[in-house]
Every structure is written in C-alpha cells, then in structure tokens.
Design a protein that fits this description.
single chain; Rossmann fold; Alpha-Beta Plaits
C-alpha cells in the first residue's frame, strides 16, 4: 500500500514547519525519515496519519486522500508516536483487548494472542504496563500498532531510550513487519537506518534535502575520499593539481587521503598523476561516505 505526499506545507502561525514537501513510499518499502530536532519529522508523520491537518497540499494512502477518509485510513495505518502513550494501570493483555475493541477487530482473542507472541510479550501479559521496563513498554506500543493488522506503519522514534539489546530486538521486530507492510520510521540512530531501511529521506528546516537508497548514500554528494599509497614521495601541492581533488592529507610517508570536490571519480586522475611523475600506485581504495557524514553535511 503506497503513501503519496504531494506539496504539503504546514504553518504554525507565521512559522513554516513544512515547506512544499513531496515524496512517495512504495508498497512494502521501509523508509527512514531523518532530520535534526525541529526539522518537521513528527509534523509530517502526524499529517500522514490524519492526526494533524496540512495547511496546503495532500496525502493519499492507496489512492485515498487522508483528510477526506479519516476513518477508513486509520483502519489501515498503525501509528506509534514518540512518547508512546499507554495506560500504566492496565494489564498488558487487558490493554491489547481494549485496543482491539476500539478497532472492532474480529476474532479478538486469537488476534491478541498472536500479537503478544509476535512482540515477545508472553511473559509480561499478566503484568501492569506501569511496572514494565522501557523496552517492554515499547513492545506494548508496537503491539498496539499491530493489533488491527494495518498495511502501513508510521513509527516515530521507535527505539528511543532503549539499551543496545532492546534496540536489536525492536529492530528485528520492525524488519519482520516490514516484509509485508509499508513502513516509515523516524530515528536518530544511523546504524538502525542502515540495518533495516531500503531508502532514506533527510529533511531539514521543513524541506527535503536528500532522498536516496541506503546502498547509494554518497551518490551525487561531494567529499568522497580515496586512500592511496605511492611508491615514492609526493607533495600536497602536486596532489591538489589532480582534477577534482580538493584536499590531501598525509597518513604515512607515501600514503595519502585525497578528497574530491564533486561527485566525479578522481581515481583515473590519480593514476595519470602517478604515471606523469614516474610513481607506482601501490594501494588505492575509495572511502564511501557514511550516512552520518551525509546527515551532518546536509543539516549543519
């Protein structure tokens, strides 16, 4: 089930939280939605789920516009907000039965049992939510999201505040759900995005600044680097004469890191430089830009 965001703008008074944002999440895709605090991530998620109206523009889910089909859309979407609101005085199983009643699901007992098993809450189902650890409360939130078997999952900081072991468990749960559902998740943990997302969108100051597959993070971005070792000495000024080279750092006597000033590949120029200066290239490796580097480059 696809999600299409078309020219969405959101104003809070004179402040523009979202500025003409457009993108599409394809059916069965896990999308990482990234950005610094205050960039507009949560606002966008609330608009997609129908909890907040856009000032202008539209969102459609499976061809149905959200604002005109709220009841129908909320049956197809599971939304986990960042603060994961729960009823601490309710027992886990009791709470999930209550949520199932709200959605009017059929075969409630079986569905609740299946959801408890999927989310690993079996040992905790007879405990009050208020006594659970942060990790298990997050599992309850995800169980709430999954209880009516939605086709789209919108997850805002689903692993916030969890320890490394809990993060892996929740990550695996999201990856498993993403095999059958369309998933959009927001997080500040870059390793999490690289581990489970096929695609990332980076938003900054209400505008999209990057939209690409996770396997092509450095595509079209300046600052790619090459590690090279020559058979003899070279000077920094000489290396900067290589077309596209912007910086050169000596690592060892004859070993350098050379950064490019644009998206082009400077390795051919390095080989030509070596030939012209009677040098042999003993070692050459391209350093790919990491997601964290890309994020900092586009949002600082």
């Amino acid at each position: 089930m696809s999600v299409v965001v078309n020219n969405v703008t959101k104003l809070y008074g004179k402040q523009k939280a979202l500025d003409n944002v457009s993108f599409k999440i394809n059916t069965g895709e896990i999308l990482g939605f990234l950005g610094p605090n205050g960039a507009g991530k949560t606002t966008m998620m609330k608009i997609i789920t129908g909890y907040l109206p856009a000032t202008s523009g539209s969102v459609t889910i499976n061809g149905r516009e959200v604002r005109n089909n709220l009841r129908e859309i909320k049956q197809k979407v599971g939304y986990l907000p960042e603060n994961n609101p729960l009823y601490p005085e309710m027992y886990v199983q009791e709470y999930l039965r209550f949520v199932a009643d709200l959605f009017g699901v059929e075969k409630k007992d079986r569905l609740v049992a299946d959801t408890i098993e999927i989310t690993g809450l079996g040992k905790e189902k007879h405990k009050k939510i208020g006594v659970l650890s942060k990790g298990y409360r997050q599992r309850v939130g995800l169980a709430h999201v999954l209880i009516h078997d939605p086709e789209v999952l919108i997850l805002d900081e689903p692993t916030s505040g969890l320890d490394p072991n809990q993060i892996v468990e929740i990550r695996n749960l999201i990856s498993s759900a993403g095999k059958e559902k369309t998933v959009m998740l927001s997080t500040h943990i870059m390793q999490e995005v690289e581990a489970i997302c096929q695609r990332i969108i980076i938003i900054n100051k209400g505008r999209i600044v990057a939209d690409r597959e996770t396997g092509r993070i450095d595509s079209g971005i300046s600052g790619a680097a090459v590690v090279v070792e020559f058979s003899g000495e070279a000077e920094e000024s000489q290396l900067l004469s290589i077309p596209g080279a912007s910086k050169a750092f000596r690592v060892e006597k004859n070993k350098w890191i050379i950064e490019s000033s644009g998206p082009g590949d400077i390795r051919t120029g390095i080989f030509r430089f070596a030939v012209d200066n009677n040098l042999t290239v003993l070692y050459l490796q391209k350093q790919e830009k990491t997601l964290e580097q890309l994020f900092r480059e586009l949002t600082e």
